[in-house]
Amino acid sequence: MTTREIAAPTAPATTTRLARALTALLSAFALLLGLAPAATAQTGETTAIDPFRVTLSVSGDLRPGGEVTYTLRATNTEVIALNTTLHHYGVRVPSGFQYLGVTGDLDGAVSDLGQGVNFYGGDPGSNTVWGGGSREAKFRFRIPADATGGTIYSAGVGMETKLLWNRDWHHVNNLVSFTVTPVQSATQVTVAPSVARVGEPVTLTANVSAVHGTNTPTGSVSFAVDGQTLTAPVVNGVASTTAIFEATGTKPVTATFTPASGTEWQTSVGTGTVNVQSEATQTQLTLDPVAIHDGDQITATARLTPAAATGHVVFTVDGQTQRIPVTGGEAQATFQLITSGEKTVLAAFEPANPARYTTSQDEETVAVSELTTTMTVSVNPSTATAGEQIAITADITPEDATGTVTFEVAGRTLTAPVVDGKATVYTSLITKGTYPITATFTSDQPTRWLGSAGTGSVTIQAEGTETEVTVDPATVAVGGEVTLTARVTPRTVDGVVTFTVNGTEYLADVVDGVATTTVLMPDAGDETVRAVFTPADTERYAPSEDSATITVTGTGGDGGGSG
Predict the structure, then answer these.
(1) Is the pLDDT of residue 29 over 60?
(2) How many other CB atoms sit within 10 Å of the CB of residue 469?
(3) What tens digit of pLDDT does each residue of 352-379 get?
(4) InterPro entries under this entry (predicted)?
């Protein structure tokens, strides 16, 4: 509370009272004659408004828009009233102050009482103030909302008094004053974008406002964040700057407002947070085609979002790896797959700056089928003689398929490797007939090549024999003896030779390729000898025959023979 007291004069009380009475009498008389001027407002400070000691004090919230109370107290310093009358009293306040109300010794409405603008006063009710008595009123006002910190506001008093018959207004200006305290400010921090990226600018904004009143603070704001101090002026209550961050994390921001005038504004501090994150990426993998055969190629394409992300994409599939740089948001690799099955292709993005972008990956599958093979079986010769060597060949398509072929023929199992698309075995059969042949291809890369099978046949004929018959002697007399000899080729063949002479058959075993018997020729004339070889193994050898002629001379007689 600021109090300014006007002290009472120190002259003797009796002299003072007489002087005042005389003065009042003369003043009234002069006024009646038109010789005395009207009362005017006093300037400067005064100690008394006779016979009153006046005290004006101010208290309250000394800020823009704050409420203050002016307490006006008028005390009669005389021992007796001496017709001292207080007709009106009031206060003169600074321009712009809003009147709120009054309490205390005041009767009736408050008005300017004809004392000009910014004066507020009224009738104290009981106008006669006896010596030692006082009147007090409390006037409430609101300081203008646009008041500036540091502003000095002064107020004065006015009183209409009557001493004897002289009734005058007396004013004392600038009796009490107060200074508006520096206005409290508030600083709020905003960050845009709310999620920041490494290497990209972030806007830091401080909105500085008055906690009280309608004025806008002026000055500057210093932003302290991540080891950086950035200063920006406050324009229309806003200070803004940009910051760039090199690492991820939560970055506290402290914004300190420094007023242009410390008497007008108080400093204030606001805080905020910058959330710096690596920007999330997305990798989308596509394969072309998505179904192939062993040995075919696929193209794997990885597309990155955002397209501005830089780095490499690592493609892996079936034990193969390729690391491809990202260009224009895309990376592409080609693979040849040589094993069958469902293969997973993985594309993993590795950012060039891991603090700027996150990793990401995608995967797709490709179906790899075994390559089919076909087989044809051929036999050379296709018709063979028993015991003759034959070649059985399996032709495999495609020619680059590798593995083995298993042949089944006449209860035998024969195998041969595939070389340049062919597998051949050699064998011989000793029994005549037609034999089916089956051949089965088994790949030595079963995840790449499918097996296949083929059939064929071979016809085996009995091995031919030759029989050569001789007679000894070729000419014989009737009743003579003739030796019949059959030589069979091959000599190793076993069997029987049947000699037929004149309707009679003679049998002889073949030993070492020769069969022999003797016969008697009973009749003259030419006789044909027929020799037919019958092999012991008719499945292995074919029969054969030959003939010869015996000339019998002389006359006939009894015939006979032996074999």
Answers:
(1) no
(2) 20
(3) 999 889 999 999 999 999 889 999 999 9
(4) Big_3_5, Ig-like_fold
pLDDT digits over 456-468, tens only? 999 999 999 999 9
Query: Rounded to an integer, what distance in angstroms lies between the CA atom of residue 224 and that of residue 209?
Result: 20
481, two tokens: 């003896």
Buried b or exposed e, range 147-167, using 16+ CB within 10 angstroms: bbbebebebbbbbbbbbbebb
User: Could you tell me the two tokens for 161?
Assistant: 């008094």
Separation CA 8–CA 223 (nearest Å):
59
State pLDDT tens for residues 177-208: 999 999 999 999 999 998 999 889 999 999 99
**How much of the chain exceeds pLDDT 90, in percent?**
77
Q: How far apart are CA 74 and CA 148, in angstroms?
A: 32
Q: How many CB atoms lie within 10 A of CB 239?
A: 26
Strand partners, 404: 417, 442
Q: What is the CATH number that goes with domain 2-179?
A: 2.60.40.1170
- Structural domain boundaries of the chain? 2-179, 185-277, 286-365, 374-461, 466-562
CATH architecture of 185-277: Sandwich (2.60)
Q: What is the pLDDT of residues 472-501, one digit of tens each?
A: 999 999 999 999 999 999 999 999 999 999
Over residues 82-91, the pLDDT tens digits come to 567 899 999 9
| CA geometry: angle 150, 151, 154, nearest 5 deg | 135
Q: Are 337 and 343 in contact (CB under 8 A)?
A: yes
Tally of CA atoms within 13 A in the half-sphere of 401 that contains its CB: 28
Query: What is the side-by-side order of every strand in the sheet holding 311-317?
Result: 291-293, 360-369, 341-351, 311-317, 320-325
Burial class for 453, CB neighbours closer than 10 Å (0-12, 13-18, 19+):
middle
Strand partners, 552: 476, 525
Assess whether the region 286-365 and the region 466-562 belong to the same CATH fold: yes
Average pLDDT, the chain: 89
Token pair, residue 426, equals: 């050699």
Distance CA 546, CA 499 (A): 10
Q: How far apart are CA 187 and CA 209, in angstroms?
A: 7
- Nearest to residue 66, comparing CAs of 156, 151, 168, 131? 151
Which superfamily is assigned to 374-461 in CATH? Immunoglobulins (2.60.40.10)
d(CA 437, CA 311): 62
Other Cβ atoms less than 10 A from the Cβ of 227: the count is 6
| The pTM of the whole model exceeds 0.90 | no
Burial state string for 253-284 with b = 16 or more CB within 10 A and e = fewer than 16? bebbbebeeeebbbebbbebebebebbebebe
* Cis bond before residue 9 (omega within 30° of 0): no
Using an 8 Å Cβ cutoff, are 51 and 77 in contact? yes
Beta bridge partners of 135: 74
CATH node for 286-365: 2.60.40.10
Q: What is the CATH number assigned to the segment(s) 466-562?
A: 2.60.40.10
Contact call for residues 279 and 352 (beta carbons, < 8 A): no
Contacting residues for 430 by C-beta, under 8 A, at least 6 apart: 386, 387, 460, 539, 540
